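Run Zinc carboxypeptidase A 1 through structure prediction, thanks.
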Amino acid sequence: MKGNQSINLKTYLNYMFFSYTVYEVTAKNEATNEFLRHLQSNKEFDFWSKINKVGKPVSVMTSPKVQNEFEKYLSSHGIEYRVQIEDVQSTILSEKEYHRSRQALKHKKISFDQYLRHAEINAYLDQLAQDYPETVTVSPIGQSYENRSMNIIRISSSSGPSSKPVIFVEAGMHAREWISPALSLYIINQLVENPNNSRLLEDIDWIVLPSMNPDGYEYTWDVNRMWRKTRSPGVECDGVDGNRNFGFHWMEQGASDRECSDSYAGKEAFSEVEARNLRDILAATANISAFISLHSYGQYLFYPYSYDDVVPDNWQELRYLADLVKDVIFAINGTKYTTGSSTEVLYPAAGCSDDWAMGGAGIKIVYVFELPGGGEHGFDPPPSRILPVCAETWEGIKVIADYVAQNAKKIQ
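Sure, done. The structure for Zinc carboxypeptidase A 1 is below.
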């Protein structure tokens, strides 16, 4: 049944994470990575970050059932590891309690010291459309599986039809990555409510989709904080990884055909209505010059392609611009990003929205931000870190915007 179904107590208790531990494991050789890949099919392990190149850390949550055996294996094979989070549920509970206390304050204006629910996100967009009708237009691109409105906000200084290049920002694909929608709202806030950024509207129009997976996102608030996929029903397990569901090299490397996998690509390309909604708005929008997808975590800045170890014709341009962005972000707080294609830096992941944006929709400037994580908070920085992460990343996105404005004819 679609809609906001009530959740029974048994279901809720199934997603408590008392004594679940997150380990940071550093592979010393490819054999270790092969061991980690093998664990991805085991439901007692939940990989919070992508399996990395040798020498790079990987974060994985383990159930209490397997922790002793897991530690023994790592120690006996000389694999470096450390406990990143001792008890995941205690972190989740403290996060929930903080947001309950903040929601009680009933801010009239948006604040970047808390994460917002899907309805609150849409309410903020609607408020901006009301307050800034000359700049802001809000419209739905469709409904999610559970009939939540997927709204985009178009920000433009042009009162009528515009031929300016468009930057399209997509956020919230993976439900548990809360910092992703938060950053999209910060981008919107800076473009609409900060007059110091008015120059960024002179030569560019912006479209932002803050909530790509609203059903999964709400599920992380109400039931399972660790949920990643959509909420469409399956036979054995529910949901599809939206970022494996796009129809450019669908179901190739890095995608799973197992329903219970977090990287399950679906029964077919674009099986998920959320992926179809994004595909259709990209096709219907003229002059998109840049597409930015926001994820967490890992401090990576990727450009296509993700499906295999291949790069687009303009890879040198993409690398050059990515390095400019990386340097600007580093200069602010010392945050270090790694740049490159997904397969160059990590591993193949076919069926992603960034590959579709370039290979399917023909957009030339395409990036994926894997934003900083929260250390002991996992996917998302604690509330005190939301604003610093958003502010430093925004400076990098402004670099992309300036490049698009200066090179509009070449990249359209």
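Residues 9-13 have pLDDT under 50 and may be disordered.
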